[in-house]
Amino acid sequence: MRVKRVLIPLFKDEVAPRFDLAAEALMAEVSPEGGFTTEDFLLPHPSADGLCDLVLRKDIDVVICGGIEEEYYHYLRWKRVEVLDNVAGKALAALERFSAGSLKAGDILFSQEDGHAG
Q1: For 63-90, how does the pLDDT look when each residue is reduced to its tens digit (9 = 90+)?
Q2: How far apart are CA 57 and CA 73, in angstroms?
Q3: Exposed/middle/buried for 28, CB within 10 Å: 0-12, 13-18, 19+?
Q4: Under a CB-based contact definition with an 8 Å cutoff, are residues 6 and 64 in contact?
Q5: What's the predicted TM-score (pTM) here?
Q6: Which helix (H) or strand (E) holds 52?
Q7: Cα(30)–Cα(114) distance, rounded to whole angstroms?
C-alpha cells in the first residue's frame, strides 16, 4: 500500500460545512501504517473550482468534506478521487479516523464538549 494524499476543506479547525465556501484546506499524507503529516493551504478566495484545481495539482487521492455540489462530487469521482462527503467535525479528528480506516461519508464527529451536539 502507498501513502494516500488527503485534502480537507476547512472552516477554522473544522471540516468546512460547504465545499464551495472554503478558503482554506488541510492537506495530509497518510501512511499505510496510519501516521500522517499535514500542511495548510490558503486559497485567494472561496471557490469550488479552485479547490478542484488544488486537488488535481497536488495529486490528492481522497477529499473529506461537508456538503458538496453534485457537479463537483461527480467531477472529482470522474478524476478518480475518492470523496467522503457529509462529514462534520474537527478536521484532525476526521483525519485520525480516516488514518485508522474507520471514517465513512456522513460521519458526525462532534462531541457534546465541542458545543455542536444538540
Answers
A1: 999 999 999 999 999 999 999 999 999 9
A2: 17
A3: buried
A4: yes
A5: 0.92
A6: helix 48-57
A7: 25
Residues written for the chain: 118
Task: Give the span between the Cα atoms of 50 and 80, in whole angstroms.
Answer: 18
C-alpha closest to that of 19 among 77, 83, 80, 81? 83
Q: State whether the Cα torsion 101-115-22-76 is positive or negative.
A: positive
d(CA 76, CA 72): 6
Note whether 23 and 81 are within 8 A (CB).
no
Rounded to an integer, what distance in angstroms lies between the CA atom of residue 83 and that of residue 19? 11
Distance between CA atoms of residues 115 and 118, nearest Å: 8
Amino acid at 75: Y
Spans of the chain, pLDDT less than 70: 112, 114-118
Residue located via cell numbers 494524499: 5
> What is the residue-averaged pLDDT of the chain?
93
